[in-house]
Fold this sequence. Notes:
Residues 615-685 form the Disease resistance protein winged helix domain. It contains 29 helices and 46 strands. By secondary structure, it is of the alpha/beta class.
Amino acid sequence: MQCFVSFSFSSSSTHPFQSLERLHLSDLPNLREIIKVERDGSAAISILALSATFSCLKVIILKGCSSMETLLPNLQNLEEIWVKHCQQLIEILGAPTLEDEENERDALIKFSLPKLRELRLDKLPELKSICSKNGVLVCDSLRTIVVNKCCKLRRIPPFVSLVGNGLPYAYAPPSLQILSRTQSWWESLEWDDPSLKNEILHKLATTSPVARDKSMEYVEPAVSIANCLGTPVCKYLQYHRKLNDYVRNLKRIRDELNSKAEDIELQLKSELLHPLGKIPKKEVQNWLDKAKTMIGEAQGVENKVSNGRYLCRACNGKLVDEKTREMQTFLDKAPNASDSLVIDGPSVGLPLATSELVGGKAVREEIWQCLMQEEVSMIGVWGMGGVGKTTIMKHIHNDLLKQSRFDKVIWATISKEFNVTKLQDDIASALNLKNDLAQEENKVRRAAIMLEMLKKAGKYVLILDDVWDKFCSEEVGIPEPSSSNGCKMVLTTRSKQVCNRMGCRDIPVALLSEEEALILFLNKDGPNIVQSQTLMPILRLVVNECARLPLTVVVFAGTLKGEDDPRIWNIALKEMKDRIGMVEGVDAEVIECLKFSFDHLKDEKVKCCFLYCSLYPEDFEIEKDELVQCWMDEGFIDEVDTRQDMEDMGHAIVKKLVDNCLLENVIDRYGHPCVKMHDALRDMALSITSMNHRYMIKAALQLEKLPKEVWRAEIEKVSLMWNSISEISEDMSPPNCQRLTTLLLQRNPIKKIPNAFFANVPHLSVLNLSFTDIESLPDSISELKHLTTLLLSHCGRLRRVPCLSKLQGLKKLDLCHTYIEEVPDGMDKLVNLRYLNLQGHSLKYIPAGLLSKLSSLQHLKLTIFKLKASLEEVMTLEKLECFEGYFRDMPKLNKFVSYMQQSKKNLIKYRFEVGIDPSNFYSDGVDKSVIISRYKSCEDDLIMLPFDVQGVSISEWHHLRSLNDIPSLENVKGLTNCRIMSCEEMDCVASFTSASSSTHPFQSLEQLYLSDLPKLREVIKVERLRSETSILAPSATFFHLKFLRIEILGAPTSGDEENGSDALIKFSLPKLRELTLMLLPQLEKICTKNGVMVCDSLRLIEVHFCSKLKRIPPFVPLVGNGQPYAYAPSSLRIESSTKWWELLQWDDPNFKNVLQPHFKK
């Protein structure tokens, strides 16, 4: 490296280093310049060059850069300069030596460093000056100049003050100290003006350097004692007399810190293994690095004390005590073991969900060849909507992940409304670097950060789906792909012109052949049609009417799925022909084909459900649960006895739309099941909703203001979600929309809404302001008598809600995580309220008697200890189906559960939380769960679990030794999920004897997750009776277990179990599919020596860092008389290192041969 950065004066005024605060350059022997300036003779050049390049730089450290001769000019925010071991450095602050400057050699050059506090110069043998000869320093904040072994430095530059008319040689910064190891350097300085020496000498009268000699070696004990004189005498004597005790305490804390660091490193390794693609949190890595430093420092203190003189005992005691306290404080701030230690890290990419690809083989091969050729860098895949461009590219994306040619494969969807910020965020998310962009709002800087991200990504393929027009790559921050950087960009678009304007190699996607269209139709509608001699001829006509377009073929197949009457097919074919004959243009024909499928949805409410999806942004992944809730709020789902039944009906509609190929099943990045609407289907939906101007949809269009001109009187639904609207102007006339029923404003930074805004929308029934910055709701909301749904979730600044007494039609009110301190006035009048969410930390209390008046409540979420009434008030709600509550302590939860069971109140769903941060735990997909997190209890605290609980999560409950300590667990019948983490005293999950009852709470368990249990010795502890020769050890205990994961368990196994019995023990786990064992340094056995496993469903045994595990138990089939050592489950895969596999010990040599085909390193 010869320079850190280079550019010309004609370059853009913005640079990626404008936000840089700290620059550390070390051991760069060929570095000559930090900034290399390529001068343009026509450019106007300032002598104060490049100050904006590092405009935020505060600290610069330069070490071992032996070719460097000059640093750089003015940096307004610089606070520290430290230069060391730069053999050729002549000057610290050098102005550019341009011809203009050479012609005016006597010009005064001001080096303005107003925030500079410290300048350290160490071992710079050629250094002659701090700045150029005509330079003066403007640095009023300068406190220290440290000089060591700079033998040629003969000049200190003059100073001038930042303000005023201070003259050189008559001023020095008020707090300045100049320090050097040798008096001779000070005496050898040459002064441009004697008055400067006098000025500095005056300032340095109390800080002149003192020579150090060997006599200091004998002075140190005296100085140490003097340093202790400030300590009270009793403490001084204690330090002296009990030095050994202090040292022992130091060693103890040091060992604790070392153990904690090792535990965190083990947990970190575990979390980095599964799932893949994670990296350590920065604070965790910093803590581990600091821990290592502290442990080293503690060892240094021990060494010093062991070699110390008797006179230094008291001072050494004080030193040891201070270091011990420092380590203890640091240990108390260790990362929490129950929290994740990792975040998403960079990876090549994640596979995308794809549908089956029919046809397009030639196109795929052509695209692939272009990707493999160095000379092609830009590829444009084009064709009409629905022709299969996205599906083809998803398959290619997944194929690229299997190759090692590219470092990254990035997918981003652009859509019709091009949004630079969204595209940047999507690319950054794919690189797992979204946080690097999150705080930056400046467009130019965002582009610079994105440019740097992609440059560091190595060779990548960037796939941009659904591009509608040319865009500027530089504006986004995408480097130009080229053969030199090896990067590729692929676009999918409907227009060949877009490909040409972007400079792409264009590749068209053709329609399906008739045979391919038939295959695709039959794949969706079933093969039975082939056997029908009457349907096949009609089918050929149908696929041709569908224009052999994959999307229309699939949607039409979904419409006629299961229909085998030829007359119905003929009617559908005729209707399709008539529709297409009425329009002109391919796009219009496609929309008519799709409308045919929409019109064949016989239920009008199902049609409304489909059209509602168009209110979301294009290509949006809509969570199924959220969508069903929205349909319920809109009244699209008939009201029945229970809310659960309505939700089930909603999910049935989702399935129907998916089965009809009008919606597509997808999984979002968080693992939530979602649906997505194809953009061509959305175009069709918008063409329907635009009739009679019933819908106004402007979602995610980057709007900063509310549209004024399009509020027609006939509008029924308005979607302005996911925009950048911050305020609704007082000048705007309130919309006069008498038929408006739905207004969606969520995900906008709206702070204020005019008071009269809702005055002329009397029939508004759904208002969503969730995730906005609204501080106070307008009073006109109080007059919305037809309002049924008011959503204010996560409005973190909302302090005021007007009186709600007139909103007696309100059925749903969500106030979770707002900033309100009291419940709104008039809530007791909301007699029709079905859903209420009052969770959050700001609400001070819930008045007694309020809940009992809300007799229609079906779904309730609140914080129990803020309830002023008794817990029984909740249970008086006869229609309550779902309850989520946070309890302050265990007795409160027990009291609630006891009352719930005595009153025989069977909730359909519940989630009970106790302790600190229990909301961080997921319910793992179960409807009924209890979560205990970081609960500080006494040993006698017991928990009463509901008998029908399905999921239990326990974290940091340190008195718990096993689940046998929870007696109420014996009454639980349907437990499917169990998580136990960071319980220090737990030594087994459960224990019982072979004579125990044949029923256990774990019989229905499907998932068991154990983590950070340092004393755990056994999952199941079995006490056997001597008279038994064969034990079906817990045969029914984990009968339904599908997933077992164990992490970071450090205690050794007991050998007692092997004494005195040769009985064969069968461990029957017939549904176990995965067994993952990680970071178990003391684990010796999967089961006891005489144990055999019955687990025909086992697919994976994964072993990592279990060095003492030397044995895999034999297997026997669930049925039949299979012999041990001669059988393995057919789908089994064993994954670990080759070294571990080779070190395994085999009870029978044949068993290794049986398992060898199943091993994979």
